[in-house]
Specification:
By secondary structure, the protein is α/β, with parallel strands linked by helices. The chain has a single domain, classed as 3-Layer(aba) Sandwich (UDP-N-acetylmuramoyl-L-alanine:D-glutamate ligase). The chain is 36% helix and 21% strand. The protein has ten helices and 13 strands. The strands form two sheets. Strands 5-4-1-8-9-10-11-12-13 form a nine-stranded mixed sheet, with helices on both faces. A hairpin with a 7-residue loop joins strand 6 and strand 7. Helix 6 crosses helix 7, helix 8 packs antiparallel against helix 9 and helix 9 crosses helix 10. The radius of gyration is 18 Å and the shape is globular.
């Protein structure tokens, strides 16, 4: 087996996408089923480029859990070693209402708790944290006590090695307040080398949505790089050596879900190829645009030739 390129840890669910676009859930009649969750989508997206990728998560001992485990291994080529089964909790569901399609609403069914909130540390998982060239952690991991303890321990073990990435991943439904989220997320900045987030996610993490001020505060915490997503204004890459703003790619949005995770997977591909940060972000921008113009998340993550073709077409315009 090839060396481990990416280990991501976090949420998984069965995603059910409304096939009727631009209508409320009460008027939806059919859905498309897939696998989802931030850490899961980033793992799938990175595996699309041929890398050895593993995901640490848990599913329920039910049909949905078996579907997820089989799909991740056999359809999406994600290493299944750390996808374990919880004996009592059910596999979560997430329903997506595409109204409007560019800003969908997600309805989570994770009660009384989700299996991925109870990921356990094992000797094999610790070895993977040591081995992986990239360790990807969504900030929503710290919203749940047991998950927070587990992931904090893994980050401490990782010891801020290069390419320890914190996806600032703000999900308001998982927190009692922004203040609670800040108090949990902020200490984790001292354990990572790269942070990625949009303006709102930066505000939760470091108290400001101004991109340059947020980058200043994050770099002052000792991070090697900060990626701030600016929506229609592109993406800013910040390091101690300087800053660069990269313009977005314009597409007709079919579904606003998954573009950020496609960005993350393509960005990881760039890191694993030892590209410069701006080049990795450009590739991520292209992958995100491709997925924004498609309906699904995991199923629609692009391959390398698709991203290359997109960038070639854009450059010819």
């Amino acid at each position: 087996m090839s060396s481990l390129g990416l280990l991501s840890i976090g949420r998984v669910s069965v995603d059910l996408y409304a096939e009727q676009i631009g209508v409320s859930m009460s008027d939806v009649t059919t859905f498309r089923k897939s696998v989802g969750g931030t850490a899961t989508n980033v793992a799938v997206a990175t595996a699309r480029y041929g890398h050895h990728v593993a995901l640490a998560t848990r599913v329920g001992d039910d049909q949905f859990g078996r579907y997820i485990a089989h799909a991740l291994e056999h359809t999406f080529n994600v290493d299944p070693r750390f996808i374990t089964t919880h004996p009592t909790l059910k596999t979560p569901l997430a329903f997506a209402e595409l109204d409007p399609p560019e800003d969908p609403t997600i309805f989570f069914y994770r009660e009384p708790a989700a299996p991925d909130m109870e990921i356990e540390t094992t000797a094999e998982l610790l070895a993977a944290v040591d081995e992986a060239r990239i360790f990807w952690v969504p900030a929503s991991r710290f919203a749940f006590t047991r998950s927070r303890v587990t992931v904090t321990g893994l980050l401490e073990r990782r010891a801020r090695r290069t390419h320890t990435v914190l996806d600032l991943d703000w999900r308001a439904m998982f927190w009692a307040s922004e203040a609670e989220a800040h108090d949990a997320i902020s200490p984790m900045l001292d354990h990572v080398s790269i942070a990625i987030g949009n303006r709102k996610e930066c505000e939760v993490a470091v108290g400001t949505d101004d991109p340059d001020e947020a980058a200043d505060r994050l770099l002052e915490r000792g991070l090697e790089a900060v990626i701030v997503k600016l929506g229609g204004e592109g993406v800013m890459v910040a390091t101690a050596a300087g800053r660069e703003r990269l313009m977005p790619n314009t597409v007709e949005v079919v579904c606003g879900l998954g573009a950020g995770d496609a960005f993350g997977g393509a960005f990881c591909h760039g890191l694993l190829q030892s590209w410069s940060l701006p080049d990795a972000v450009r590739y991520g921008n292209a992958a995100g645009a491709i997925v924004a113009a498609r309906m699904m998340c995991a199923d629609d993550m692009p391959t390398g030739p698709e991203v290359d073709a997109f960038l070639g077409e854009r450059d010819r315009r």
